[in-house]
Amino acid sequence: MSQNSEDRFDLIVIGAGPGGYVCALRAAQLGMRVACIDKRGAPGGTCLNVGCIPSKALLHASEVYDETRHSADMGIEVGKVKLDLEKMMAYKQRGVDGNTQGVTFLMKKNGVAEILGAARLTRPGAVDVALLDGGTRTLSADHIVLATGSEVAPLPGVEIDEDRIVSSTGALDFASVPKHLVIVGAGIIGLELGSVWRRLGAEVTVVEFLDRITPGVDAELAKNFQRVLKKQGIKFMLGQKVTGVKALKASAKVTLAPASGEGEETTLSADRVLVAIGRRPHTDGLGLEAVGVARDGHGRIETDGHFKTSVAGIYAIGDVITGPMLAHKAEDEGVALAEMLAGQAAHVNYDVIPGVIYTAPELAWVGRNEEELKEAGIDYRVGKFPFTANGRAKVNNTTDGFVKILADAATDRVLGVHILGAHAGDMIAEAAIAMEFSASAEDIARTCHAHPTLTEAVKEAALAVEDRALHM
Ligand code: FAD
Ligand code: NAI
Asked: For labeling, which of 187, 357, 360, 374 is most exposed (least CB within 10 Å)?
């Protein structure tokens, strides 16, 4: 079959989220002719459009609002602080637009063909694109990368209308501050967006199935984190399974039952309900069955260690495959795959992928937590240092939290670092680099850390592994 040369590529990437667009850019840098297709009107995927970027814009704005209201004891008197939510939303949108336009610019600069439309695999090496501005286009390539990301996991029997009962997308766009926001799920989305609306004045109740918040996070940090959030006025109902949410005319009714199965059902009344119980891989309309791309029991596209799917020439990366659903994980996979396709050796170190919850204080971690080390039977030592003993945290009034370093008992090699505290998300980079270079706790302790900085708490926690912290 003859084809217009404009429609023949070395690589087609489906999905322009952090996985897809970064893969496309790296492949173009390496000399490939690349097309990157997305069915949204703008590139950047979930992350830039309805995820990382708008949520961080609202977290920042609401934190500034909250800090301004509580700045009198620093000698800053501003009178009555007023919220203009419409303007705050416009500020958020400017951030989103600036970032998505930046991706379009980068694709142009690197010669990546950006195509707006819904792609469907028709056979190995070929896709049909239903273009957003009408018509279809058939493209072919030696290699196709599936980077179609994830979507909100539904709560069975609950219809998300993005008005009264919302997903994260609706909760990033409320037109007014809810009086009472009930959040189903004490995971990352629930706590980040719960913090936003709590700071802006909502009563926030978080209902969680498990008897703890943030599953996967080191249990000691999670417990302290919950205590801090509670102090900020967020209410928690743990060990409760939400069994139904019903939208009424001016409110919503949430039905809960003890997760243990024993005990009475109760109900909560809310004016908005956020369902945040996880995300699932997004493969709708992609034509996986037509070409025989296999999925696992969770609907994720199956891949081998080199991102190859069950069909030769088709690869997958990001949220649509196994692993943490994080933008930086998707990006690193995109780069590694592009380099492999160019014949280079590349890999992603899944043992060193940081996680950050962007609340105030932030919670950040990298490597293994205590529960995981115990389960693996690894003998470890713990070094901890509280921010109450850090000079900079004291003057900044950000003394909540602590740093915890877990090091191998025999070799002192750092196995995990967990930080609850202001700027934890920035500080965790030091720990990730240390772990990439197989550093010991002593290596961190002997590295000069600037004074006065919050990072001195990392150094002190490293010293504490040897029981010789100086300021405690
Ligand atoms: P996505 O970003 O989901 O992109 C996939 C793209 O594929 C989409 O744009 C979609 O339109 C497109 N697509 C799908 N099917 C087709 C098709 N058939 N044809 C054409 N295009 C198609 N992660 C972090 O690391 N840090 C954060 O702070 C953070 N905050 C988040 C906040 C929220 C509220 C949410 C929901 C998520 C957040 N995440 C965060 C997670 C992060 O957004 C994802 O891990 C990341 O976007 C995954 O990247 P991806 O490229 O795999 O997929
Ligand atoms: P999550 O997996 O983090 O948390 C979901 C929570 O809901 C869990 O604690 C679970 O036990 C609970 N749950 C499940 N069913 C329930 C029920 N019926 N009743 C009550 N509780 C129930 O999922 P979340 O928060 O939706 O986030 C999805 C993903 O998005 C994250 O895992 C993360 O990968 C990504 N994300 C990352 C961010 C970041 O890096 N800062 C920010 C936001 C999202």
From this structure: 374
CA-based nearest residue to 127, from 8, 251, 268, 255: 8
CA nearest ligand 1 atom 32, residue: 51
**CA 355 / ligand 2 centre spacing (Å):** 13
Going by pLDDT thresholds of 50, 70 and 90, the confidence category of residue 1 is: very low
pLDDT in tens, 209-218: 999 999 999 9
From the CB of 48, is ligand 1 less than 6 Å away?
no
17 in contact with ligand 1, CB cutoff 6 A: yes
Q: What is the pLDDT of residues 146-162, one digit of tens each?
A: 999 999 999 999 999 99
For the stretch 259-268, pLDDT in tens is 999 999 999 9
* Integer Cα distance of 137 and 134 in angstroms: 10
For residue 79, report the phi and psi dihedrals to the nearest 5 degrees.
70, -155
Beta bridge pairs of residue 236? 206
274 lines ligand 1 (CB under 6 A): no
* Architecture field, domain 165-277: 3-Layer(bba) Sandwich (3.50)
Q: Is the pLDDT of residue 2 over 60?
A: no
What integer pLDDT is reported at residue 315 of this predicted model?
98
User: What are the catalytic residues?
Assistant: 451
* Ligand 2 cavity residues, CB under 6 Å: 155, 184-190, 192, 207-210, 215, 241-242, 276-279, 324-326, 356-358
Q: How far apart are CA 399 and CA 397, in angstroms?
A: 6
Query: Do 5-152+281-341 and 165-277 come out as alike in CATH topology?
Result: yes
Q: What is the distance in A from the centroid of ligand 2 to the CA of 190?
A: 7
CATH of 5-152+281-341, one of 3.90.700.10, 3.40.50.300, 3.50.50.60, 3.30.1360.60: 3.50.50.60
Q: How far apart are CA 274 and CA 245, in angstroms?
A: 10
Nearest CA to ligand 1 atom 43: 47
Ligand 1, atom 21, residue with closest C-alpha: 38
Is ligand 1 within 6 A of the CB of residue 39? Answer: yes
Calculate how far, in angstroms, residue 271's C-alpha sits from the geometric centre of ligand 2: 21
Token pair in block for residue 322: 């196994």
pLDDT tens track for 82-106: 999 999 999 999 999 999 999 999 9
Structure tokens, 134 = 């009408």
* pTM for this entry: 0.98
Query: Which atom of ligand 2 is nearest the CA belonging to 188?
Result: 25
Angstrom distances, CA of residue 468 to CA of 299, 445, 451: 49, 10, 19
